[in-house]
Amino acid sequence: MEERPQLKISIEDHDEPLNFAAQSPSLLCTLEKNNIEVPYQCREGYCGACRAKLLEGQVAYNQEPLAFVRDGEVLLCCSKPLTNIVIKLT
């Protein structure tokens, strides 16, 4: 079986991209494991506190968020990257 390459999460104003582990439940969990603080409350897409700008790439939601998400934004608590991504933490 061919292994898929790890997807990269680049954060504007951070030097090194992060690897997204396939077993990670969300972008928020990956950021936390790398000691990057992100505001959050619900962890399920209800509140929108973990909103970030998606500058490049594509994500998929674990479940459809109830919080309003504008074009060019992503909720970190309930999404995973489909491609390498670049985000800006707000």
TrEMBL record:
Gene3D superfamilies tied to this protein:
3.10.20.30
Keywords linked to the UniProt accession: 2Fe-2S, Electron transport, Iron, Iron-sulfur, Metal-binding, Transport, Ubiquinone
**SUPFAM superfamilies documented for this protein:** 2Fe-2S ferredoxin-like
Q: Domain named 2Fe-2S ferredoxin-type: which ranges?
A: 5-90
Obligatory cofactor(s): [2Fe-2S] cluster
What Pfam families does the record tag this protein with?
Fer2
Organism domain of life: Bacteria
Q: Which InterPro entries match?
A: 2Fe-2S_ferredoxin-like_sf, 2Fe-2S_ferredoxin-type, 2Fe2S_fd_BS, Beta-grasp_dom_sf
Q: Which NCBIfam families match?
A: PRK10713.1
Q: In which family does this protein belong, per the annotation? A: Belongs to the 2Fe2S plant-type ferredoxin family.
Name of the featured protein: Class I ribonucleotide reductase maintenance protein YfaE
Q: Which organism is it from?
A: Pseudoalteromonas obscura
